[in-house]
Amino acid sequence: MLYLAGVVGFALVILISVSLHEAGHMLTAKRFGMKVTKYFVGFGPTLWSFKRGETEYGVKAIPLGGFCKIVGMTPQDDDVDPADEPRAMWRFPLWKRTVVMSAGSITHFLLAVVALWFAAIFMGLPNPALAGPQPAYVKVTDCVIVGATADNRDCIPGDPAGPAKQAGLRDDDKITAVNGVPVATYTDLVNEIRKLPPGSQATINYERDNSPQQLNVNLATVQRPPVGEPDGPVAAVSALGVAGPVPPPGVPVMLKHNPIEAFPATASYTGDLAVNTVQALQRIPQKVPALWDAITGAPRDADTPISVVGASRLGGEAVEHSAWEVVVLLFVSLNFFIGVFNLLPLLPLDGGHIAIAWFERIRSWFAARLGRPDPGHVDYFKLMPVTYAVILIGGAFTLLTITADIINPITLF
Prior knowledge:
- This protein has helices spanning 2-32, 94-122, 163-167, 186-195, 262-295, 308-320, 324-342, 350-369, 384-407, and strands at residues 36-52, 55-70, 125-126, 139-140, 174-178, 181-182, 201-208, 211-218, 220-224, 235-239, 242-243, 254-255.
- It is of the alpha+beta class.
- The chain has a four-stranded antiparallel sheet with strand order 6-5-7-8.
């Protein structure tokens, strides 16, 4: 029940965020004098509505977003009352149209930044000292999972005992070498273990309480894909029976800040988030085959995109395990991603409208400098095939991610 409540609650939070996105468009449009005739949460049949002033507000039956209707968004809009022509959006200065069209994404960014600032004070943000490759501090596991699975499941009867635990390694030991080969990071450790013949013996050098020590371990044999390639060919490899990387003893994973320190901490985390979001967008095309493989039975790559369904399931899972920092950071990441995505210069996204408006201005500027007639406005009707193609591709991708999130979801615990 707690998981289900978390899923529903997180889905509701996403819906509220999207509704605030549309409210950002509406409020800025009204502030500049544009006419807004409708503001609705959801799509489909109207469940409830009321009219205040010139705007109808309401809720529709399908809670998958929202919309607001601004009169005359393009010069080709043919449903503009002659009396409203002076207030048509396309007639307003470029900077005002840019503010209105970007207000939705700005709303998402504000939600993310404010949530981060409060998180920095009351919950803490990820410790930057733990960013990047870390020394091979380990957590010793009770067993090893033989099958080629990426699931973080508990041990079950039949799982072989963990070799590291049997040999005497403990949590927070820092492994420094395997068979005399130095390992600087946890990834180095995994790579060196994988190089050894399955089921062989390894000499492990490690540090415990800053004291160098050594022991021999009889490695287990498991089935795994190559390191960093969850969709690669599965083969028999050696396993030590440790998990990681884990932070060094005494180093907190999350750092709390006072209200003043929270500002630079929030700015730093936001910068990292921006870089990661752009990189995630760039990886989307290459992750489509992995999504299809996940639907057809392959292990789900944790780096594949997720839908609202997947995000809600992760939120529910985090609530079930009382991992509130995961809930907050998931909310932050999702809002930041939606904000950046909506600014992509593609119709029908907000970024597409902004790009066309600026293209018109630049084209007119060059025409004036060259002594040529103003080419006027872009014909949106000529762009409809491209718009439909974007909608079709986006719809297919959304269907693919939703299906993967239902059949083979990403899990945290």
